[in-house]
Amino acid sequence: MNTVQLECFIEVSQTLNFSRAAQNLKMTQPAVSHQINSLEAELGTKLFNRTSKSVELTRDGIRFIGPANDALKILGTAKARISEKLETEVLPLGIVCRNIQMSTVLPPLLSAVAKELPACRPSVKISPFMPVYSVTENETADVIFSYKTEAPAQGRIVFRELMKCPICLICAENSELAQHDQITQAQLKGHSLALVSRQRSIDEIFRVTSAAAAQLHQNQIYLCETLDCALVLAEAGLCGCVAPRLGTQKDGGLKYIPITDAPPVSFGIYYSTLKANPVLKKFVEISCRELNPKR
Belongs to which family (predicted)? Predict the structure, then answer.
């Protein structure tokens, strides 16, 4: 049973004339007759008594009018809902940042996305330890904002650099080193440091912190799992912390002092070339345009 059969039945039941019903439905009369015959065969009963001069509804035909109308209304409602869904369908985009500081780059990007991709519904997640290959295996992660820590595997994963970030000593504004506008690695000697386990994979940071920590006593070293934890200790004045500084970060009671003899760190996005995702492609384009317009 299909909608054409039901529409033909309702039209014939209203006009009691196959020729007029065919005109109203913009079909040929034989086509209408075929649909009615098919419906009667499927139901196993006659719906109309037909002669060369008249068409009358049978008792079963009269009883079938209500269910046929109900079925057409239900199908019409379902079709309208599906059409509405297609018109208003959202386009998901999973964004992962390694820490809160990295998420500060997102507001201008998401503002541009809202204007250029109004159907896009981004989700933002802070995940310090999500591996980069998650962009090929995890449906919730389309792009990961990160410092460059590892080489993409087998060309499936791309790292797109967005900016170079200077390595800084981060300390409380009233700490001894806060009087400097810039320092060298040698000036870190003797000052308590927070060592962030997640930053061990960033070669530029690891070289600076390992050299400084080698000259510290055990009670001058604070071990932290994430940068967010280290910044709490730094703001409390217990120690300093070595980390890259994004241009979008706010000081928030902390002093960021560039370490002049430390190389900058590459910051950008990891994403998969295996995902034929036009939304992801547009987001990468927006990210490059907004954060690195010269490239």
Answer: Belongs to the LysR transcriptional regulatory family.
Degrees, nearest 5: CA angle 137-281-108: 105
Distances (CA, A) of 208 to 44, 123, 215: 86, 34, 12
Instruction: Round to whole Å and give the CA distance between 255 and 181.
Output: 9
pLDDT tens track for 152-204: 555 678 889 999 999 999 999 988 888 999 999 999 988 999 999 878 888 89
For the domain made up of 3-87, give the CATH fold.
Answer: Arc Repressor Mutant, subunit A (1.10.10)
Starting at the edge strand found earlier in the chain, the sheet holding 193-196 runs 221-224, 193-196, 240-244, 167-172, 254-258
Residues of the chain with pLDDT under 50: none
**132 closest CA partner among 121, 140, 123, 143:** 143
Residue 255: which of 156, 146, 178, 193 has the closest Cα?
178
Predicted TM-score of the model (pTM) = 0.66
- Count CB neighbours of 239 within 10 A: 22
Instruction: Give per-residue burial for 71-101: e unless 16+ CB within 10 Å, then b.
Output: eeeeeeeeeeeeeeeeeeeebebbbbbbbeb
Q: For the structural domain made of 91-164+267-291, what CATH number should be given?
A: 3.40.190.10
Cα 161 to Cα 230: distance, rounded to the nearest angstrom: 25
CA–CA dist 194, 204 (Å, integer)? 16
So what CATH class is 167-263? alpha beta
Q: CA torsion 216→217→223→229, rounded to 10°?
A: -70
Q: What is the enclosing helix (H) or strand (E) of 176?
A: none
